[in-house]
Amino acid sequence: MTDDRGPDLSAEDFPPAAESLALDNPFWQFSLSAYSSSAVREACLETQDQYGADVNLMLLCCWVGFSGVRLDGAGVKRLDRLVEGWRKEVIGPIRTVRRRLVEAVGPMGPQVTAKFREDVKAAELQAEQIQQAVLYRALETLPGRDARNAERSGVARMNLTLYLKDVRGIDDKAVLKEIVEATVLGCRDELEKEEDETT
């Protein structure tokens, strides 16, 4: 199916086996580092829980921005549509189960289900990693503007704003700016820490 936003990406655009996806890719490594920042984690989770935003897409917008690539609105929408089914049918239900296990389920209290909850949490993380690998692979097919000479935080802000402006419920420009700033600055701080450690 195509429309004015460009053709949808589908499973046919990718090799069928998950093993052919690069699970441990630079985007995944960036996400692990960025998500270790409490500011990034809090901004992403709050935006996910309040508005239904996709944390992986938020992080992707930042990562490509800090890599010097400016996305366009059509490309961001294509990426969102590509992973929408996985997010709703796999990650969402796993997350719901993990969160439900914080409290007793019938006679099974949290102390009884603690190990199972950890296994569910690991499955959720693996599902997130698969989604990120698909997004990483999809970047090869999307146009992006070279913005290596631009200020990288600004490019990340633009990319993230492109995604979040279409998330339902984020209508207040001040709220949008606050989410973008917290996420981008947290990511930038983690990248700078990483650079300091390697020099």
Automatic annotation (TrEMBL):
| InterPro entries named in the record | CHP02444
The entry's protein name is: TIGR02444 family protein
Domain of life the protein comes from: Bacteria
The root-end lineage is: Bacteria, Pseudomonadati, Pseudomonadota, Alphaproteobacteria, Rhodospirillales
